[in-house]
Design brief:
The complex is a heterodimer. Chain A is mainly beta. Helices cover 8% and strands 49% of the residues of chain A. Chain A contains 3 helices and 31 strands. In chain B, strands 1, 17, 18, 19, 20, 21, 22 and 23 form an 8-stranded antiparallel beta sheet that branches. In chain B, strands 14-15-2-16-25-24 form a 6-stranded antiparallel beta sheet. Classes of the chains: A mainly beta, B alpha+beta. The interface between A and B is large, with 38 and 36 residues.
């Protein structure tokens, strides 16, 4: 062979070997990032960070609580009724499911629970210990890399209908119902201890609540159910504010902590001039299901179910003036192709989200279909609709605002528990920010 | 005097009203005049009292306590013919002792009021020049009689107008008599007692015109049970999803229903008053919104039967005639305002033990059954005391409670038909259900085994209809003389419904 031919052959073989080698070579194994997000560790076999996946969650038949961090990671806390444990879940976006770990299991714990995140992203969960009728708190300890528990309040049978709010300074605020005293309580966490206090005992004195809005003692004697149901808490500036239900008078109440103590207002439901004789079941049932949020202007927003009318409503308490404006979101009336409109029962279990532009989304239950409805305002009117085939089927739900102002909604369809499933996942739906008209 | 008159006066506020079970709060405030103008239906109802009624009434009417009492605390001062000055202070109260009410021969109502004699002690003062004499005496103000005729007035009055004509003023068969209680320094008989008697009568007569005539007009209207109020929907306390105390439709006395059209009293016909009905407008109840109601042909009641006989021949005392279109429009309003919506608590475990596939859901034992009208209500006369109410389209919804929230378990649509007897009751009429049927015409059940549950659902719906009628629907009527009714009969001639009533015997 000529020298040129040999060189050509050499180059050809080299090129061939390179090509062959390149084709036969496997893709480089994925490797975890240098550091994993909080609550996740590197799983070398798949080369990505994963949260613990210790528990197969079945029979979640209470309301889960959702939180989303700045990276858009969704977390839930939930109660598993079969094991009577409190679990914490981290959403795996790849597998599109939550990965759960048990965070409290001593006794029957977690049937009421609320999740919130500290500014640094650590989760904290307020929960009810049914075995000991007390209120507990668990949070993730970065140093110990484990969950820690502490008693919030065990001074009576307390701790149901609870909610948790962690403010920008990382202070924890809890609202919950006192079963013994038929009252609403609030507790704030200080270094090393929680300090509980009464918010509303139902005594309705003038210094706390305007006389016209008071629930008469005779009515409380007749009903004997008390206040503090379905409490939800936010901190407005530095002021804790709680929405809750007064079951004696069937009214939605709002409590605010001021320098002189707690003051209370009735947002809807109790109208003294319409009330007659005391009765065991109050004339109205307004606000037993409610949710509370603050809009960008600092106004308080309370979405609530008016069971008297089967409707979903929204109360806005204007910042500064305190003026309350109640508007109807969904009256449950649905037109049909033929015949008159039908009245449906809507508005139960509302979950309220308000974004940075004040856009409101309320997820609520359609009692006829047991699907979640999403109510949004279009121009001056409200529209409630499902998400079509992707619609979460309800029943319990919670919603929160995530980064990019997307709405994260979790729901549990308890109806499926009975019909076909041993395992019913907590479903997560992420709704993108609605476009403004 | 008896308290019955006062009771009757209070009863005017009730007048004729439809008291029906409801479920939706309807905010209808006190009717305004604009509402009256918008919804007035001229002469669509007629109220009648037969001559026989007046015959039985003639001598039995009494005045309520305090009505017709005349009083005088003043002094008669007269300059006598001889120039002397007479003063006679009188402090007396004249109480009526009887009232007679009858049909006048020339039309109108004739009222006779008698006043019992009154004895009082006084003193007569006689001043002659510088000499003054005082003489104590007893006066006997003799029994007096007052006769008036009330004629119905027509025109633009929104009250049942009466014009009062005093046929005979206060008259007495004898003048005032007197007797000395101590010896007098002058002769009492020398005084002009006829003039003194006339002064007393004049004073009392003025009071008759100023106040008593008005009281009598109101009393007569009340005693005769003439409707004074307007039909208005009182706000309902009841919500569709939380049953409460039902509220009622009723007359409001401050909102009269009529403008005095066709109001007459004659010896042959008795009393006839055609009046305008109006319906206060208000928001439709949530459960009935979107319900399109038929257009009703509402017409004035042009004529009513005479003769004072009910269709089956007995003498009636009071009667109502209402235009059919008007009656149906009232029912339409009631449907629209949610009075037919029903929301009742039921025990699921008792009523629906065969719930299929739902046991695992652990529905709470207490469920809710809700009925929602999808059409207007039809009313048909079946017999003298029997009517049929039909709701051609009614939706039923059965809700169970799951984890504290209500969820729909089943729903269906059907027709409800109820037969009921009209019976008299305290203060009016009510319907007593004799038969009810439910025809289920369509279903959109999701979770129930339909065939197994059909019978149960029919029972529930029929039962609910009966509750609605028997507890909720009462026709409250103004009761002449506050006596109540003992007998009732209904009729329908062309487009006019008649209700004939006999008064109950007066209790001893």
């Amino acid at each position: 062979m000529r020298r040129l031919d040999l060189i050509t052959l050499f180059l050809f073989l080299n090129l061939f070997s390179i090509l062959v080698f390149a084709c036969d070579d496997e893709a480089p194994a994925p490797v975890c990032p240098e550091s994993c997000p909080l609550l996740e560790t590197c799983e070398p076999s798949v080369g990505r960070c994963l949260a613990a996946d210790e528990v197969e969650v079945a029979w979640v038949d209470q309301r889960p609580s959702i939180a989303v961090d700045e990276e858009g990671r969704a977390f839930v806390s939930a109660y598993v009724s079969r094991t009577e444990d409190l679990v914490f879940g981290v959403y795996d976006a790849v597998e599109q499911r939550f990965r759960y770990q048990t965070v409290a299991s001593h006794g029957d714990v977690g049937s009421y629970n609320a999740l919130a995140l500290y500014p640094d992203g650590r989760p904290g969960i307020l929960y009810y210990d049914a075995s000991r009728s007390r209120l507990m708190y668990t949070w993730y300890d970065l140093e110990r890399e484990s969950w820690r528990q502490e008693v919030v309040d065990d001074t009576a049978s307390v701790g149901v209908d609870l909610d948790l709010y962690i403010d920008k300074e990382g202070r924890e605020h809890a609202s919950y119902r006192d079963i013994t005293g038929l009252a609403l309580r609030y507790a704030q966490r200080h270094p090393g201890f929680w300090q509980p206090e009464f918010v509303d005992t139902g005594s309705d004195v003038v210094r706390q609540i305007p006389e016209a809005e008071q629930c008469p003692a005779a009515q409380r004697d007749a009903a004997q159910r008390g206040v503090g149901y379905q409490s939800h808490i936010v901190v407005q500036g530095s002021t804790p504010v709680i929405s809750y239900y007064d079951a004696d008078c069937g009214a939605l109440r709002l409590a605010r902590r001021g320098a002189e103590g707690w003051t209370v207002r009735v947002l809807a439901g109790w109208e003294a001039e319409l009330e007659g004789l005391p009765r065991s079941r109050p004339r109205t049932e307004v606000g037993r299901f409610n949710d509370l949020a603050i809009d960008p202007l600092g106004n308080l927003m309370v979405a609530f179910h008016d069971a008297t009318q089967g409707e979903l409503k929204l109360a806005r308490v204007e910042s500064g003036t305190g003026v309350v404006v109640v508007e109807l979101i969904d009256d449950g009336l649905r037109t049909r192709d033929e015949g008159p409109s039908l009245k449906k029962l809507v508005g139960q279990m509302p979950a309220l989200v308000v974004d940075g532009e004040g856009t409101v989304v309320v997820a609520h239950l359609d009692a006829d279909t047991r699907k979640l409805l999403f109510a949004t305002r279009e121009n001056e009117s409200w529209r409630s609709e499902t998400l079509g085939s992707e619609a979460p089927e309800g029943f319990f739900c919670d919603a929160v605002l995530g980064p990019d102002e997307a709405r994260y909604v979790v729901s549990v369809n308890v109806v499926r528990l009975a019909n076909d499933a041993d395992v019913v996942p907590i479903e997560l739906v992420v709704l993108s920010k609605p476009s403004r008209p | 005097m008896r308290a019955r008159g006062i009771t009757a006066l209070l009863g005017v506020g009730l007048a004729m009203g439809l008291l029906m079970a409801g479920c939706e709060r309807v905010d209808v405030g006190p009717a305004s005049s604009s509402v009256y103008q918008e919804d007035a239906r001229p002469s669509t109802a007629v109220y009648g009292l037969s001559p026989a009624f007046f015959d039985s009434l003639a001598s039995t009417t009494t005045l309520p306590e305090g009505v017709g009492v005349l009083s005088w605390e003043d002094s008669i001062a007269e300059t006598l013919a001889d120039g002397s000055l007479l003063q006679l202070p009188i402090q007396a109260t004249f109480e009526p002792s009887g009232l007679s009410l009858s049909l006048g021969a020339e039309g109108g109502l004739r009222l006779e009021v008698s006043y019992r004699s009154s004895l009082l002690r006084s003193r007569v003062l006689l001043k002659r020049g510088s000499e003054t004499s005082i003489c104590p005496l007893d006066l006997d103000l003799k029994e007096r009689r007052l006769e008036l005729v009330l004629m119905p007035s027509s025109g633009l009055s929104r009250q049942p107008g009466w014009q009062t004509e005093v046929v005979e003023g206060l008259t007495s068969t004898e003048p005032v008599s007197y007797s000395e209680t101590e010896p007098c320094s002058f002769a009492l008989e020398s005084l002009d007692w006829a003039l003194i008697s006339q002064r007393i009568d004049d004073k009392l007569q003025a009071q008759v015109s100023e106040s008593f005539a008005g009281e009598l007009r109101a009393l007569v209207t009340t005693e005769l049970g003439i409707p004074l109020g307007g039909l208005a929907m009182v706000p309902l306390e009841t919500g569709f999803f939380a049953p409460r105390q039902t509220l009622l439709a009723s007359w409001l006395s401050e909102q009269p229903p009529w403008v005095g059209a066709g109001f007459e009293v004659t010896q042959n016909q008795g009393l006839r008053a055609a009046f305008d009905l109006w319906l206060a407008s208000g928001e439709a109840a949530g459960c009935a919104q979107g319900l399109s109601l038929p257009e009703r042909d509402v017409r004035p009641v042009a004529s009513v039967p005479g003769g004072g006989k009910a269709p089956s021949g007995w003498d009636y005392d009071a009667a109502y005639w209402v235009d059919d279109g008007m009656l149906h429009e009232i029912f339409d309003r009631l449907v629209l305002h949610g009075f037919l919506c029903q929301d009742q608590e039921i025990r699921l475990s008792d009523v629906l033990p065969e719930l299929v596939g739902l046991r695992e859901l652990e529905l709470e034992a207490e469920g809710r059954l809700r009925l929602q009208p999808l059409s207007s209500m039809e009313l048909t006369l079946l017999g003298p005391r029997s009517v049929e109410l039909r709701i051609p389209s009614l939706r039923g919804q059965l809700y169970g409670v799951l984890y504290g929230a209500q969820v729909l378990v089943a729903s269906w649509e059907g027709e409800l038909r109820i037969e009921a007897d009209v019976v008299v009751s305290v203060g009016g009429l009510r319907l007593s259900v004799t038969q009810s049927d439910v025809t289920l015409v369509s279903s959109e059940r999701e979770l129930l085994n339909w065939l197994e549950l059909e019978t149960s659902l029919e029972t529930i719906v029929a039962g609910s209809g009966e509750i609605f009628l028997e507890r909720g629907l009462t026709l409250a009527l103004p009761v002449p003389l506050g006596r109540g009714f003992s007998e009732v009969e209904m009729s329908r001639e062309e487009s006019v419904w008649g209700v004939y009533l006999k008064l109950a015997e007066r209790e001893p």
